[in-house]
Amino acid sequence: MTASSRVIVLHLGLLALLFGLQFILPAYHHGNLARIMVLASYAVGYNILFGYTGLLSLGHALFFAAGMYGMGLTIQHMGFTPAPALIVGIVAGAFVAGALALLALRTVGVSFMIVTLMFAQAGYLTVLYFGEYTRGDEGFVIQQAQRVLWGVDLSNATNRYFAAWGLFSVSFGLSLWLVRSSFGRTLIAIRENEERVRMLGYDTYKHKLTAMIISGTISAAAGAFYGLLFGYAGASFASVQYSIFPLLWVLLGGAGTVLGPFVGTLFMFYLIDLSSGITSAYLLIAGLALVLLTLFAPQGLIGEIRRRFWKNLP
Amino acid sequence: MEFGPHLLLATLEGAVTAAVLALTAVGLSLVFGVMRVVNIAHGEFYMLGAVIAWYVAHMMGGHPALGFFLALVLAPLLVGAIAVLADVIILKRVDYDPERTIVATIGLLYIIQQLTLMTYGPEARPVEAPFNSRIALPWFEWGENGFQFYYPWGLSTTSYKLAVIGAAGVVLLGVWAMMTRTKVGLLMRATQADRDMALAFGIPVERVYALVFGIGAALAALGAVLIVPIQQAHYLMGADPLLLAFIVVIIGGLGSLPGTVLAALFIGLSDGIISVFFSPTLAKILATLLVGLVLVWRPQGLFGTRTA
Predict the structure, then answer these.
(1) pLDDT band at residue B5, thresholds of 50, 70 and 90?
(2) What is the architecture of the domain spanning A3-308?
């Protein structure tokens, strides 16, 4: 087997495994895994910008929330059915990502982080400000009757698992294809040395802009699906925490690896799930993980594997 | 109340906010200026200051002034020590890399916040002010009887609030004197100007960094001790000061102390005035957007000068 086909087999293998797992998992973990796959899609989107392009955004909750509210508000207030509502959410996310990219990409480094943080915070406050429609922190529930997509009831556990798996497969596959394409390789080159890439004649600005829009769109899709599958949209999904979470998942799993976001999300989810039995201050675990990762394992889990055993893992 | 007295009241409230904000923001600005890192956990140092103040005042008993003044000394020292520890354990080991420092301080934020939640609990607790007499304020107008003074109902402040403004002014002068008139300040400015050159001249840059990080946190804690008799100590109270301090530091020009103080006055006063007359959420939306846009178009800050 060539190196390239081994990579393909490994990644398709994960999707097949996730597909198969749903027939054997007990109900509790079955539900968890559906949730993890949607959140992992969010992390996959985040990873395209952070892991592959080297731009650390602290404002991805803005895109996640754009997707969630684009979907939720059209269902709630305009009587949309799920399919067009999902499209509205995803398009809203792409639009917001494009707009923020036009502004934020004028800055670099720490300024980029703070600009994204500030606009995401403004977005969160906007959700609170229009509490009449969004119901603010309390959020609103999307009723079961409103969650039937082409005759499939998404509140049913099995259907929900399939939808989450579908979303994850698409974003995961897209990410794998993207980073192996010449476009993705240029992104990696930008991460490593932007000056040199520009010297070689590439339009780095256009590449970063496109990467940010793709990243934001995938994040928005994850947000829209999350709202639809679990029937709830609330302002907490727009808060700073939801910008930090994908950063944490990607760092834990390994930034700049295709498998990393899923592995990181899976680990963190169960770490918090298990620790919630001991303490309600579950964010303590997140904080400790962030500090320990920056100190000892900036590569993350899959990053370590790549460094030691499998050099050409994408 | 009529518009005039109402505005005066809003300005006074804003001045108290501005005073405490100036302390917090100067701490953040000092850290950014000298160390070139952004400390996201700054708001949690502020919160720790307030919480420690409550513990000290609670344990002291006796006259409220006793506990308060002890807290005024102890809380900044303790918080400064915690910050120095964090600097040595964490920041030094990521080599003050700007991006990794942000991630690490986000982690630190959660650790401090959640540990406080686990020990201090979710309640908001007050600290009694050492003195708190109500001072009614006069207002004047041209009426039918010509120029006259009167005391409108509700237009008043307290001696404590005025003392907060005065104390903040004294501390800021102290920081300024330290930076410009002492050997330590000289070392800090040398490190800020050129780290490598400072190192070459034998300045213990790592110790300067630890000290600056400690002083920055201590200033935030001091601001919190001053405000805690007016607000209350709560484990989530660090978020707003962090955001406001960010806004101030960015608008005032990153790392410039006079700019920071000016911006704190501007933001504190306008926050007080806008919040009285408009929705506070709207005020915050506008402020955050302003910061984002300032960073995009004038990264040197509104009051800062462009450096090469």
Answers:
(1) confident
(2) Orthogonal Bundle (1.10)
